[in-house]
Please model this.
Amino acid sequence: MIQGDCKVRSPALLLLLAGCGLAGDWQATAGAGFGAYHPVTFGAPAGTAQAGIGPRFVLNAAIGRQIGQHLAVEGTWTYQDGDFELSSGGTKTAFDASAQAAHSDVLGYLRRRSSRWRPFIVAGAGVKFYVGSETPAERPLSQFGSFRQGTDSRALLLFGGGMEWNHSIRWALRLELCDYTTPFPTGVIVPAEGAKLGGWLHDFVAVIGITIR
Model:
């Protein structure tokens, strides 16, 4: 009778343990930090101006899964405050704005899961939404460009790295440094007629987060 009970219950126990093992592969991260954009040059007949977005705070949240000892995949949402800006010859004008991004990332860890310190590299792609929230009005530096209210969606590429410190099997601290790169959002930071811009918009972001598994 006892042996029969064991034969019936053992498969159920194995399924339960397998489920717990799979659940342990999932992780969620929430973080906060700071982002700074590298401006792009607007070249116009009147001269040149720097166009970009002001440095400001960043919030993000991610959910993902560890794969083996050295890989993880995550889906991430990032919010970054920061006004649209134009500056030239000591004059600057700004426009209330923010940006949000949704992206899928792959993390490659250089050490095994059991290591206390785990350096990693990260690469990802997605979409970034540049949102102008102010009512447009006449502003200085209109010979170089202007601002628009609304949203400009741009393809996003990111690359970076960081360090994870495992406090326990359940949670860890993460420091991440990434370059978020998109084509310049000319739908909301609009070059003046005849003005030319050079390069993509780079956003250098540093975030400290807590990971729960």
